[in-house]
Write a structure and sequence with these properties.
There is one protein chain. The chain is α+β, with helices and mostly antiparallel strands and 134 residues long. It has two domains: 77 residues, Immunoglobulin-like (Sandwich); 35 residues, no CATH class. It has a three-stranded antiparallel sheet. It has a two-stranded antiparallel sheet with strand order 1-3. A two-stranded antiparallel sheet has the order 6-7. Strand 6 and strand 7 form a beta hairpin. It is flat. The chain binds copper (II) ion.
Length: 134
């Protein structure tokens, strides 16, 4: 696995749910500076799981995830092959990631980590939108 940080800020890649050792876990203790390249050898040896990867830099995780730095990791150990479940990936077995986002009038992502900036808060009472603009 090769990770190149093409951002202009520190990031990490954390393997959420993978059973890997701490020295390749990608937590905040393993920052990747802008322009740096990190090479990892991940040995995946665990039961089937639906996991995900995401950045985990100190004080910037939520924003980086919001901006799209995340993805799914499906570990298949064959144990579900005999179950009456959809089995054709991409046809009847469709992994989904749902993420709540707001958009600015120009179509760009609007990121505001305040819980009072969420659409439900603003929709609950039109006065809330005015309160936020103060
Ligand atoms: Cu995580």
């Amino acid at each position: 696995m090769t990770i190149e940080n093409a951002l202009n800020r520190i990031t990490t890649v954390h393997w959420h749910g993978l059973l890997v050792l701490g020295d390749v876990d990608g937590g905040p203790h393993q920052p990747i500076k802008p322009g740096d390249v990190r090479r990892l050898a991940l040995k995946i040896d665990q039961p089937a799981a639906t996991d995900w990867f995401h950045p985990h830099p100190h004080h910037d995780t939520a924003r980086q995830v919001y901006m799209g730095l995340t993805g799914m990791i499906i570990v298949d150990d064959g144990s579900s092959a005999h179950l009456a479940l959809p089995q054709t990936y991409g046809m009847d077995d469709l992994p989904l990631i749902l993420q709540d986002r707001s958009f600015e009038p120009d179509g760009s992502l609007g990121y505001n980590p305040s819980p009072m900036a969420t659409a439900w808060y603003q929709a609950a009472d039109p006065a809330n939108r005015k309160r936020l603009s103060c």
